[in-house]
Amino acid sequence: MPEKLDLRNFNGKNYVTPVKCQLYGDCWTFAQAGAAEIAYLFANNMGVPAGEENDQVNFSEKYISWYVYHGITKDDVIAGRARASQVGEGFDISEAEATNPQAVYFTGGEFTGNTTLYRLGYGPVDESVTVKGETPYSYDDS
Q1: CB atoms within 10 A of CB 130
Q2: Range 111-119, long-range pairs (CB < 8 A, 24+ positions)
Q3: Cβ contacts of residue 47 below 8 Å, gap of 6+?
Q4: Would you say 123 and 63 are in contact if contact means Cβ atoms under 8 Å apart?
Q5: 64: which residues sit within 8 A by CB, 6+ positions away?
Q6: Is residue 111 packed enough to be buried (19+ CB in 10 Å), middle (13-18) or exposed (0-12)?
Q7: Calpha distance 56→73 (Å, rounded)
Q8: How far apart are CA 58 and CA 124, in angstroms?
Q9: Structure confidence by residue, pLDDT tens digits, 26-47
Q10: φ and ψ of 114, to 5 deg
Q11: From the CB of residue 102, how many other CB atoms can be counted at a distance below 10 Å?
Q12: What's the confidence (pLDDT) of residue 92?
């Protein structure tokens, strides 16, 4: 193993995506999406010259938050994303959402749920994808 590995300058290429502004209590989704972005860029040799911003992918943190805290449904089975035996699995925070529609974005992460989400094919998806009709995060990068 090398003493140090910096993917911002690996053989003259940058494989790291820009830092994003986290507004809610879902730092775990930003870590997961960022790691997936870097892995995707590296695996597909999509580095840009070191020192330049690599914004070729932008995976959705909101998508991760929403799906980790909403159980698997029959619609997911019909779409081929999960087996019928898995319907009802997953976290359900509908009671908390009844009083606070943003509750899912304030809830801490659970690593097995995060990795299962990607394994089932729920992500990563581009930031432009909406979740149940909601718009994705927006932020002011100034």
Answers
A1: 13
A2: 111/28, 113/68, 113/69, 114/28, 114/29, 114/32, 114/64, 114/68, 117/64, 117/67, 117/68, 118/32, 118/36
A3: 10, 11, 13, 14, 15, 41, 54
A4: yes
A5: 26, 29, 32, 33, 114, 117, 123, 124
A6: exposed
A7: 32
A8: 9
A9: 788 888 899 999 999 999 999 9
A10: -60, -50
A11: 13
A12: 67
What's at 83, amino acid-wise? R
pLDDT per residue over 51-97, tens digit each?
999 999 999 887 777 777 776 777 777 877 777 776 766 666 777 77
Token pair of 41 as six digits: 């860029």
Q: Which two tokens stand for residue 103?
A: 């509750």
Beta strands in 4-72 (DSSP E): 13-14, 48-49
Q: pTM score, two decimals? A: 0.73
Number of Cβ atoms within 10 Å of the Cβ of 138: 8
CB of 58 closer than 8 Å to CB of 37: yes
* The pLDDT of residue 63: 78
What pLDDT, in 10s, does the model give residues 104-137? 666 666 666 667 777 766 678 888 776 665 655 4
- What's the confidence (pLDDT) of residue 142? 45
